[in-house]
Amino acid sequence: MARSRRAPDILAAVDLGSNSFHMVVARYAEGRLVILDRLREMVRLGAGLDEHGRLSREAMNRALVALERFGQRLRDMRADSVRVVGTNALRKARRKQGFLERARAALGHPIEIISGIEEARLIYSGVAHTMPSEPGRRLVVDIGGGSTELIIGDGKAPKFLESLYMGCVSMSEDHFTGGRVSDKRLHRAGVKARLELEAIENPYRAVGWDHAVGSSGSVRAVFDAIHEIDPSASVITQAGLQAVTARLVDAGSVTGAGFVSISPERALVFAGGLAILAQVFDSLGLQEMRVADGALREGLLYDMLGRFSNEDVRSRTARSMETRFHADKGQADRVETAAVDMLGQVAGPWGLADPETEQFLRWAARLHEIGLDISHAHFHKHGAYLLEHADMPGFTREEQQLLACLVGAHRRKPHLERVLELVPPWDERAERMVVILRFAVLLNRSRSDAAPPAGKLLVRDRAVTLRFPRGWLRANPLTAADLEREAAYLAAAGYVLKVA
């Protein structure tokens, strides 16, 4: 696999949540992260989604103003030292490409949209890395604007991950409009939350945990309200939740309850978060919950550090996919070696001299045959489907789409139209990566341990030349025939292949 690289001195993580946008900047020194700066903007992006999944102009404008402020802090930072992720609101949004392009311009960095399960993994990592080590299993609950993540882990390793379709924004909009609270509204919200929790209640109780921890804004806001009522409180309890709930009902609204710790912006979504947390306590039989300082943003920082070492969770995921779908390790080794060798020959003229390009080409080479576990017929298409839709810890949706494009186009007619849908810079790089992967597979079609000839790959824009030792093609007529057919396939994609 690719060599480890030195981590940047300064790292930044940006979380584009459904309720708030957060940014954290940290220095990496002597093996630990020291937080230098935190920024938070209450954007309520999720509230700007209509019933068709379209973002309102007002929500997009709020988001872009916040991102321009973040961008001022990030603009001078290295591309590989910043990660920006979008969560539930951007997962749900439709026709969002134009907004994402404007957001990228405002930030100066691309935005990755992560799945709910990946969000859960990163949240657990952020909590585990920022809390003291302790024996036993840990339950982590994170109530976001549009989703709620529940994770059971041991140490720093998450074991069970779930992302539920409920959050403080959506719950507040549906049941607590304008921050109004009543027993009837709380009951309806509680039923909705319980329905979401029903599927995980018994499996999670069966696994069990020793400590319960809550993270992010909603849980923190509930604890702060409990602490106002009882300054001696150090954890969230059933009694504390009931005290806050009773005060809201008596006042009839969040703002009327007079909690100093609840800002006007938080008041709009506070009741929804409280209702969800109360049902988590009831459904899972919790007695108490501590509040963590770390969450998704800290998880992103530690995940970035892993990418500069041999601890990149994506590499573990790729190896797991190889094993799970019974890929031929010997063939994966052969194709990977050939692909990296050819990449080294053309990286300069084709603009592919980037560590991430090599890494994705390696993963695609190792996973190009996983579709055989489903069916030999069209196995490249089956492999692409698996890579696009499987839960792959560490990979964003865009990264999975990149792998799917590479694997899906590695044989037969290379349907490259999907490459244009990839996010930059992969929309420009992926087509050439496909060509390299196709050659690497073709030259190892015999699946022989004998290395293929030390051919020379020369490129000039869309003109490609493959040169072999004198007489080798005559001695290997099947490969010569494969290359003749490959020339026709590539011609349909706008490439000219010359074999000599």
Describe this structure in words.
The chain is an alpha/beta fold. It has 3 domains: 10-114 and 299-305, Nucleotidyltransferase, domain 5, CATH 3.30.420; 132-292, Nucleotidyltransferase, domain 5 (2-Layer Sandwich); 312-499, Hypothetical protein af1432 (Orthogonal Bundle), CATH 1.10.3210. It is 49% helix and 16% strand. It has 18 helices and 14 strands. It has helices spanning 57-74, 88-92, 97-107, 116-130, 168-175, 183-207, 216-229, 238-251, 264-284, 296-307, 313-324, 329-346, 355-367, 379-389, 397-408, 426-442, 472-475, 477-492; strands at 10-16, 20-29, 32-42, 82-86, 112-113, 137-143, 148-154, 157-164, 211-215, 236-237, 288-291, 456-460, 463-467, 496-499. The strands form 3 sheets. Strands 8-7-6-9-11-10 form a 6-stranded mixed sheet, with helices on both faces. Strands 3-2-1-4-5 form a 5-stranded mixed sheet, with helices on both faces. α5 packs across α9 (264-284) and α15 runs parallel beside α16. The radius of gyration is 26 Å and the shape is elongated. The model has no long low-confidence stretch (mean pLDDT 93).
Task: Give the secondary structure arrangement, pairings included.
Layout (H helix, E strand, L loop, with lengths): L9 E7 L3 E10 L2 E11 L14 H18 L7 E5 L1 H5 L4 H11 L4 E2 L2 H15 L6 E7 L4 E7 L2 E8 L3 H8 L7 H25 L3 E5 H14 L6 E2 H14 L12 H21 L3 E4 L4 H12 L5 H12 L4 H18 L8 H13 L11 H11 L7 H12 L17 H17 L13 E5 L2 E5 L4 H4 L1 H16 L3 E4 L1
Parallel strand pairs: 1-4, 4-5, 6-9, 9-11, 13-14
Antiparallel strand pairs: 1-2, 2-3, 6-7, 7-8, 10-11, 12-13
Helix pairs in contact: 1-3, 4-10, 5-9, 6-9, 7-8, 7-9, 8-9, 12-13, 12-16, 13-15, 13-16, 14-15, 15-16
